Amino acid sequence: METIIVLAMHGAPARDFPPAELAELMSLHGRLSSPRAAAGEERAALEARHAALDARVRAWPRTAGNDPLWAASLELGEHLAAAAGCPVVVGFNEFCAPSLDEALDQAVARGAGLVKVVTPMMTRGGEHAELDIPAALEAARQRHPGISFVYTWPFPVSEVARFLAEQMARMERPPA
């Protein structure tokens, strides 16, 4: 059974994405999330426009110059693949393609029997790590009932603290 890692990253809009469209997307997200959100046909129209803008921002061409987070995410994926000894698919919670759902499906299409999902989000309390990623995993389990999906988060706080302390100690040493 092949293991494939899905690296769940946050995502950010490209710096050159049209600001007015980004503002509209964010406004629609807020309106649709509100307890007083529109209903019926009005809601359907808002959801359709939101979906169109979301698809546009995710499909926007990316470079290291217009989206350094995207570039860093791919770089992290390459290093993780080398360190873990298995393929990595990078997926994004928002603003970038592929979406987390698409990344999970890609892992299955590449022959994974086991999909391990990890995020670099280190601490509890974030909506993506605590809600969005588990929801995407549950949906993937429904789409792919014969595949094992494992979420490797949350990390032990003591391990996160040790990692951070090691990084600080390494930075305190004079350069070689």
Ordered list of secondary-structure elements with their pairings:
Layout lengths: L1 E8 L9 H15 L6 H20 L8 H17 L3 E5 L7 H10 L2 E7 L8 H17 L4 E4 L5 H16 L4
Parallel strand pairs: 1-2, 1-3, 3-4
Helix pairs in contact: 1-2, 4-5
Our estimate of the beta-strand percent is: 5-15%
Q: Can you count the helices?
A: 6
Q: Strand order within the widest sheet? A: 2-1-3-4
Cα end-to-end separation: 43 Å
Q: What's the order of the H and E elements?
A: EHHHEHEHEH
Shape field: globular
Largest sheet: 4 strands, parallel
Structural class determined from secondary elements: alpha/beta
Percent helix among the residues? 40-55%
Low-confidence stretches: none
What is the overall pLDDT average? 95
Count of strand segments: 4
Radius of gyration: 18 Å
Describe this structure in words.
With 176 residues, this protein is α/β, with parallel strands linked by helices. It is built from six helices and four strands. It has a four-stranded parallel sheet, with helices on both faces. Strand 3, helix 5 and strand 4 form a beta-alpha-beta unit. The radius of gyration is 18 Å and the shape is globular. The mean pLDDT is 95.
